[in-house]
């Protein structure tokens, strides 16, 4: 998708499963809890608490999925959904306290890709977000393999030579993105945009440090190459 608005950060979403997600929820404790769970699942997550903030953020960053509470202050969730659908840059998972069939039909008629009533199980939320994200990406094998290295993106488990690797969520996300890039060199800027969220400082050595730890944990022979002026690749 192409957005002509100035200043918007666009990404190539055809490579990799690392996901950038915006959570729009006015209940601050619930929003924080959802963000924690999604980050543990390897997603980069930003959070806003009203519709105006959501539209402003989406004008600057192209999110893979927007988790949108329908009943939010400011601009109503219905109008936020209509705007995002019209822009066609992000997919929408709508949340609501009402779980009636009529409400679900109305939510989907607004153009939302999926609809989840509250309360919900976090495991189902993660599964639905991943399912929505896959719709705009080419099919990838359920287990990513490179030589004796394998990664299960769903279970967030990586092994090499049959041995489990003790990787942090960010290290898993970086490894997943590099594997699904299929040998393409991935710049530090791209990794920062795809794997980290707005809290990441773009002027730090965060990516370099994470890749260094990942290399160490993957062991020998080395799998991650540094490409001069190009970034990293497996």
What is the fourth-level CATH superfamily of the largest domain?
Response regulator
Secondary-structure element string: EHEHEHEHEHEEEEHHHEE
- Largest β sheet strand count, sense and barrel closure: 5 strands, parallel
Helical proportion?
25-40%
The first-to-last residue Cα distance is 27 Å
CATH fold annotation of the largest domain: Rossmann fold
CATH architecture of the largest domain: 3-Layer(aba) Sandwich
CATH class of the largest domain, anyone?
Answer: Alpha Beta
Counting DSSP H or I runs of 4 or more residues, the number of helices is: 8
List low-confidence stretches.
Answer: 1-16
What is the structural class? alpha/beta
Rough outline: elongated
The largest beta-sheet arranges its strands as: 2-1-3-4-5
| Assembly form of the protein | single chain
- Write down the domain tally: 2
Q: Strand-residue fraction?
A: 15-25%
Number of beta-strand segments? 11
Return the average pLDDT rounded to an integer. 84
Instruction: Output the radius of gyration.
Output: 18 Å
Would you mind describing this structure in some detail?
- Pfam families: Response_reg, Trans_reg_C.
- This is DNA-binding response regulator.
- InterPro entries: CheY-like_superfamily, OmpR/PhoB-type_DNA-bd, Sig_transdc_resp-reg_receiver, WalR-like, WH-like_DNA-bd_sf.
- This protein has 234 residues and is α/β, with parallel strands linked by helices.
- It folds into two domains: 20-134, Response regulator (Rossmann fold, 3-Layer(aba) Sandwich); 144-233, Winged helix-like DNA-binding domain superfamily/Winged helix DNA-binding domain (Arc Repressor Mutant, subunit A).
- The protein has eight helices and eleven strands.
- Strand 3, helix 3 and strand 4 (91-96) form a beta-alpha-beta unit.
- Helix 2 (51-58) packs parallel to helix 3 and helix 6 (169-180) packs across helix 8.
- The longest helix has 13 residues, at 28-40.
- The protein starts with 19 loop residues before the first strand and ends with a strand.
- Mean pLDDT is 84; it is low at 1-16.
């Amino acid at each position: 998708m192409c957005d002509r608005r100035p200043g918007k950060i666009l990404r190539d979403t055809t490579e990799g499963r690392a996901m950038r997600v915006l959570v729009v929820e006015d209940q601050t404790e619930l929003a924080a809890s959802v963000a924690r769970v999604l980050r543990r699942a390897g997603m980069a997550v930003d959070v806003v608490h009203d519709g105006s903030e959501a539209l402003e953020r989406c004008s600057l960053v192209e999110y893979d999925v927007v988790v949108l509470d329908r009943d939010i202050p400011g601009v109503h969730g219905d109008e936020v959904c209509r705007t995002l659908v019209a822009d066609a840059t992000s997919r929408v998972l709508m949340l609501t306290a009402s779980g009636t069939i009529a409400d679900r039909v109305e939510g989907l008629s607004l153009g939302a890709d999926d609809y989840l009533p509250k309360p919900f199980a976090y495991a189902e939320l993660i599964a639905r977000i991943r399912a929505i994200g896959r719709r705009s990406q080419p099919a990838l094998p359920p287990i990513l393999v490179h030589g004796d290295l394998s990664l299960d993106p769903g279970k967030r488990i990586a092994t090499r030579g049959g041995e489990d690797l003790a990787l942090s969520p960010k290290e898993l996300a970086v490894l997943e993105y590099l594997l699904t890039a299929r040998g393409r060199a991935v710049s530090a800027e791209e990794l920062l945009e795809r794997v980290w969220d707005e809290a990441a400082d773009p002027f730090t050595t965060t990516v370099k440090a994470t890749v260094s730890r990942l290399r160490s944990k993957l062991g020998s022979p080395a799998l991650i190459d540094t490409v001069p002026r190009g970034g990293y690749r497996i």
